[in-house]
Write a structure and sequence with these properties.
5 domains, Multiheme cytochrome fold, 1% strand, 2 strands, 716 residues, 45% helix, mainly alpha, elongated
Amino acid sequence: MRRISLAGFKDPARRPRYVIWTGTAVLVLAAALIVTLGVTSSRWFCAGACHKVQDDTIIAYSHSSHDKISCMACHMPVNSDPVTFMLHKVKALGELYMTATNKYELPLNAEDEVALSKTEMGEERCTQCHDMKNRKVTPRAGIVINHEVHSKAGYQCTVCHNRIGHKEDFTLTLPGNEKHADFMKMDACFRCHGLQPGAKAPGQCNACHPKDFKLKPEFHLQAGFYPEGHAKLAKEDIKRVEEAKAEAEAAKGESSGETSEILPMQAVSNCQTCHVKATFCDKCHGMEMPHPESFKDPKDANDPNGHPAMSKAEATAAKCEFCHHQSKTWFCDNCHHGSNEGGTGKGQVAGWKFDQKVPWQQQHAAAVTQNGVDGCLGKCHDTKFCADCHNKLKPVPTSHKDPSWLHGPDPVVSKDGKPQTAKPSAKHVAAFSKPGGQSACAVCHGDGGTKAAFCKGCHKLDMPHPAEGSTPYASQPGVHATAGKRDSGVCSNCHQFREICSNCHHAGSSDANPWLGQHGKSVNAAGNASGCLAKCHKKNDCVQCHTSRKVVPASHGARDWLHRASLTAQAGHSSLFKKSPEPCTYCHGDGGAKADFCMRCHKLEMPHPPGFGPPEGAQPSKENGGEHMKGFQANPPKWPRGQYGAVQPPCSSCHVSTFCDSCHHKDGFKGKAPWGVPKVGVAQEHPVQVRAKGSAACMTCHEETYCSHCHVRASR
């Protein structure tokens, strides 16, 4: 790199030219610098170019009484030397970078650092224009101010007049921007002033206000401010102060530059600008305010400084009522029977929300029904407390009035065709079984659970029914069956639906389908009642029930039950007996067809033994008639007039004349008309057959004179 040569200044011939051009360059550079410094120090540049991204600051400046004053007049030290001026410009380059890269933060000067800094905004910047010795001070009405005292104490003007050059009396335009605190308000005064001993400056009213000043703020006079309104404002005030102090401490620890020892305005309690907490608030309330944690949740319920004891003490109980209006707002109930019971307190029962519009006495029953009494008894009350109240007021819990409280509405039905054990459906059982239910019942009915005297007095039996091994109580015939038969009233006290036994013992039975109306179908489908007899019943049970009710099985009412309906079909009782003889014995006794009941009707052995009639397949004749022919020969039938072929008892109990014809005249008998009748003009079959085949076949059984018995009579 070529070095700058100063040889021209040594050469007499070139020296004048070098001096002239060097001087010219210096003059041009100086002129450019002067112009640049002048432009960047102008109001136009500050407001229109450099700080254009801070429109709200410029608008606030234009709204102030200093809008005609140069920005530099306040933001540059008074009588600054060129070096200080240049250093200020160099420092401003950092702000130019933040502006150009859009990394600036809003609000600008968020904590009023500029106003509170003696370096950035010293008193001389104001007094260069405002001479306090000859200036007439015009404070706001009702304010007494001594500027000299504040100046001597070392506080510059902007500690109070922080917004004098930037008046934010408009709606801010930049998104996310916020207005700055106004140190001309009373809260700002109490950054230094105070009512407590040791305050930097006095905070009594007469220190800053004349005697005729109206001290009470307007919002104190509004309806609802006292007592409810002031409590709400006090809580908000305390919360704001605590948060502001915490932020100030955090900011103080992070800052590496100049920091102000003045308390942030947000950390000043608005209430304590007039009231001393210890002598005003606590004295009025009769206790520390706000309530400390030891008051809200004392370790011992008898702690005299805890709220349980103070709420009951005569001296402080009225104070509690005055603020919280328990008698109208149920304030205590809202916590004890509401938020705490919702699970926010230690050991509380979750799941209940207190209705602030309804007294606890009217909703505690629903809460106890839902959560039990463990939360009540564990925190505040004992069983006697509940019992004394119920005995005095004599209320019956709403749940006890439910129609299903004592007895469940649902009968037990069979499942998948198999009987199932009875399940409890009464609501008092469900209430007892839920978590905390036993404790709730014990309040009125005594300890011991289902073995308590109250329960045993009603149930008589152990509840729930005990089990032997894995066998349910209901499947132990020696236990529940015995108890049910011995005193069925004990069972029906709980199991009130009519078909309780049938619902379990008889598959398919229910209250809607009583077993009595369908047991016949079930027995018929099974073919017998062996299942009934094997488990529970005896044959005599069937007889006694049918006899007492005078009920004949449906099958016995059939038209063909006793006698066959046609020549090819058997009588119904005969067919059923052949299919399943056992059910007949339930009513008619053992012995089958030889039983006394059957013999009294049939008179003859049933079914007829071999040899009773002609050999199977043989044509009947005088020689092969068998025993039944001998019976007819020994006791010939009498033929009454007009009744041909009447069958002789006891055959007539089962058979009609066409039955005889179907065998004796089977070659021509069709069964559509009688074989023969002693009457002319009536359709009969034997004349047609005789004319067609002759009477030789008839003579195998009859004598020739036999025909005349009918023919001669019919011709008369």
